Amino acid sequence: MIRNRKVQLGIGLLLSALFLYLALRPVSLPDLAQALQTVNWLWAIPVVGITFLSMYLRAVRWRWLMRPEGNFTAGRLFGPMMAGFGINSIFPGRLGEFARAYILARGERLSAAAVFATIVVERIFDSVVLLVLLPVALASTRIDPGFTISYGQFTVTHADIEGLAHKLAVMCGVLSIGAVLMMWGPSRRLVQGVIARVPLVPRHLRDALVRLLDNFARGFASLRDARSWVVVTLQTVAIWLTVGWSFQVMAYGFEGMSM
Q: Which of 12, 54, 139, 167 could join 242 via S-S bond, C-beta 3.0 to 4.6 A?
């Protein structure tokens, strides 16, 4: 691991520049500059505040999920969480989720698998709440069946949006089933028994996978009572309402939008 902060900063800036270039390559820069000149950037001030509120609510939710591992404050969890979101902004594949689990686990001497399990729980709740809010949003917003928007070589249609919603539903279902199976002792022990008997796999690797499942299950320990499910659900709804609120407020900065 690179420990020199100047080298880390340099690598971060280079990667940011590279991915920014790749993101903007299909865009006409003169058209982009002209569009940005029409934006009323004063609306960005409240958006920043709302965004930080949303992030803080995420830290509060993570604190609740981390209860079995220790009594953490939302402020203590805020740093690793923001580091993870920063990495997500640079690298594909949601690598920041693994990074924040590693950062917190290393700093607090916790099981990385148990910490990562709490992040999986977050994604499950996010998916479920978004699936509930999506029909509400679509019902209140008229989308022309012939809707098409192009971005460079990419094109998004009304059918693509419907397909994305379907894939999100499937992903949510798979994650939920997997979480329940890992929380339920008999099914977890069954999987562990199968892993322990897999041939041609070194014994130390099989033992490590068995321990990994136990540590992973610990991450779900905070959701073993009804009150926890209700609290985390309400926190997740609050998070996504503030995210939507920030988008709505920023939209007022563009021409043609009004309160």
A: 54
CB within 8 Å of 34: residues ≥ 6 apart: none
Q: Whole-prediction pTM value?
A: 0.71
- For 49, the enclosing helix (H) or strand (E) is helix 44-65
Tokens of 178: 């997997």
User: In which region does residue 73 sit, left (phi positive, over 0), alpha (psi from -120 to 50) or beta (all else)?
Assistant: beta
CA distance 84 to 122: 14
Contact 182, 213 (CB under 8 A): yes
**Could you tell me the pLDDT band of residue 47, with boundaries at 50, 70 and 90?**
very high
What residues pair up with 151 in beta bridges, in sequence order? 154
**Reduced DSSP (H G I as helix, E B as strand, rest coil) percent helix, strand, coil of the chain, to 5:** 75, 5, 20
- Binning pLDDT at 50, 70 and 90, where does residue 246 land? very high
- In order of 130, 143, 158, 244, the CA distances from 137 in angstroms are 10, 11, 14, 10
